[in-house]
TrEMBL record:
It comes from the Bacteria. It catalyses: an R-cob(III)alamin(out) + ATP + H2O = an R-cob(III)alamin(in) + ADP + phosphate + H(+). This is Vitamin B12 import ATP-binding protein BtuD. The complex is composed of two ATP-binding proteins (BtuD), two transmembrane proteins (BtuC) and a solute-binding protein (BtuF). ATP binds at G41, P42, N43, G44, S45, G46, K47, S48. Belongs to the ABC transporter superfamily. Vitamin B12 importer (TC 3.A.1.13.1) family. The gene is btuD. GO terms for cellular component: plasma membrane. It is found in: Cell membrane. Keywords: ATP-binding, Cell inner membrane, Cell membrane, Membrane, Nucleotide-binding, Translocase, Transport. Its EC number is 7.6.2.8.
Length: 263
């Protein structure tokens, strides 16, 4: 049985002294079932490094416990059945249809009910507004369209209606190439997945979105953990100004905190 954290959430993944010096110095944290954790910080602060080590594809210093078992004990098939890792990636050189590309994300899950697959596909593609792209080649997509297709594939892999073993979604800067409307739909979908019990860890650059959307924040700078905890506690003006070397003003608008960058 998995350990518990606050609000009686089972711990999905726990990192203790996670490190890859000098890119990432030791940091420890836990992520609970249905929790959304944002890694924030300037470029080169260690966000992508941390996420790659949580994926099990890059051997870390320190310990990573995934569902109460060392992540090194999982083979690739087991990892693919329980977590999805969406790395930063350019469009591949090969050409394949969008529908076929999405179906590949389910290849590790074995035989699936066709009606359930179609229902999940419809829900995710409608949410990301790519239902009209299914018959296109991925080479015909814009950067934002391609990113949304990749997001759809990642969500399908850990969609609980299709994959009851799914526990974790890892996203490295998923908002890259998205416009503000597409970002909004992405964050809604991420919250929907978390509400189904999937833990989400993502690297993010939009601090206002983190302030609004994250349940927990880990602030990194030059490979070191500056602060971690609830967004309102971590993302103070003084702390963010020091880390990002810019002037910031925090205001409240209709009960919602907002950060203004004044430099």
């Amino acid at each position: 049985m998995m350990n518990q954290i606050e609000h009686n959430q089972p711990v999905v993944i726990a990192a203790k002294n996670l490190a890859m010096p000098p890119r990432l110095l030791p940091v420890s944290f836990e992520v609970g079932q249905g929790e959304i954790v944002h890694l924030i910080g300037p470029n080169g602060s260690g966000k992508s490094t941390a996420i790659s080590m949580l994926s099990g594809l890059v051997e870390p210093e320190g310990d990573v416990m995934f569902a109460d078992k060392p992540i090194q004990e999982y083979d690739l098939q087991m990892l693919a059945q329980q977590r999805c890792y969406l790395a930063q990636q350019d469009k591949p050189a090969f050409s394949v249809g969008v529908y076929h590309f999405l179906s590949l994300s389910l290849s590790a899950l074995g035989h699936l009910d066709g009606d359930k697959v179609q229902a999940a596909l419809d829900e995710i593609c409608d949410a990301l507004k790519i239902a009209d792209k299914l018959n296109r080649s991925i080479q015909q997509l814009s950067g934002g369209e391609w990113q949304r297709v990749r997001l759809a594939a990642a969500c399908l892999q850990v969609w609980p209606d299709l994959n009851p073993d799914a526990k974790l979604l890892l996203l490295d800067e998923p908002a890259a190439a998205l416009d503000i409307g597409q970002e909004a739909t992405m964050y809604k979908l991420i919250r929907r997945i978390a509400s189904k019990g999937i833990a989400v860890v993502m690297a993010n650059h939009d601090l206002n979105r983190t302030l609004k959307e994250a349940d927990k924040v880990i602030l990194l700078n030059n490979g070191s953990c500056v602060a971690k905890g609830k967004p309102e506690a971590v993302m103070t003006v003084d702390t963010l100004e020091k880390v990002f070397a810019t002037q910031i003003q925090r205001i409240d608008h209709q009960g919602q905190a907002c950060l203004l960058f004044t430099d």
